[in-house]
Design brief:
By secondary structure, the chain is an alpha+beta fold. The protein starts with a helix and ends with a strand. It has 4 helices and 8 strands, in the order αααβββαβββββ. It has one domain: Uncharacterised protein PF14869 family, DUF4488 (Lipocalin). The longest helix is centred in the N-terminal third of the chain and has 17 residues.
Amino acid sequence: MHRRTIFNLSAITALGLALLPSNIVAQQGTLKQQLTGTWTLVSYTPNSNNRPNYKGILILESSGYYAELFGPPDRPKYKNASQPTIEERVAAQPFAANYGTWLVSEPDRTLTQRFEGAVIPNNEGAEVKSSVGLAGDELKLTRVLPSSGARQEFVYRRAR
């Protein structure tokens, strides 16, 4: 091939890649690069009990830190927010939140979260490993909690 033909093919290829949607190009990176970003919860299934109405967010920073919050949107409000009753606190418990560091294993396609802080104190200091299913803008995480042995499945969609 002539140099000019090779140059033209290279230029056309580069232009074609530049015109692709950014999420398609991002999918070509490492698993960590593909997971980095903000995800909104689509469904949550603890121990085979689907809870599709749960709302939540998972933020995976490229620096290796994460934050995760989720729960039902229809929790009852406290009558007195500064002094909730025991019953009101129990009713609010389905809400979960944790933060810490994260890393991935490319060969195993797993995400490991190290809980630095959590609503459930027993989870603090624990590592939770999730299997990762990733298809386009949908992320599926399946994990078992070390404190209780509970199996959880999360389906997230990339936030826009």
